[in-house]
Amino acid sequence: MSETAETWVVYLMTGKKTNGLKAVCEQVEWDAMEATSPGLHRLIQGGIASESEAEILARGASGDTKRRTSGRIALIEPVGN
């Protein structure tokens, strides 16, 4: 068997429960979906080199680490008193 370069795509799903969700799949899977149901889902970006890169693109900022705050309130005193 010969190995082929694997590329990934990010697409926008449609459907009652999945409308607006971003998903990731291999390029060959996307091609098969498009062949059976053209235009059902919307391609956001194709030709992505790695699955992890595609997942980051699909996730956006939703998986980012939240910034921590100390919970302290800074008190500012008037100057000149």
Structure characterization notes:
By secondary structure, the protein is an alpha+beta fold. Helices cover 23% and strands 21% of the residues. It has a domain at 11-59. It has a 3-stranded antiparallel sheet with strand order 2-1-3. It is elongated, with a radius of gyration of 22 Å.
Write the layout of secondary structure elements.
Blueprint: E1 8-12, E2 22-26, H1 27-36, E3 42-48, H2 51-59
Antiparallel strand pairs: 1-2, 1-3
Strand order of the largest sheet: 2-1-3
SS element count, helices: 2
Secondary-structure element order, as H and E? EEHEH
Kindly report the average pLDDT value. 84
Helix fraction bin: 10-25%
* Major β-sheet annotation: 3 strands, antiparallel
Low-pLDDT windows of residues: none
Tell me, what's the shape? elongated
Q: Kindly, what is the distance between the CA atoms of the first and last residues, rounded to a whole number of angstroms?
A: 82 Å
What Rg do the Cα atoms give? 22 Å
Number of strands: 3
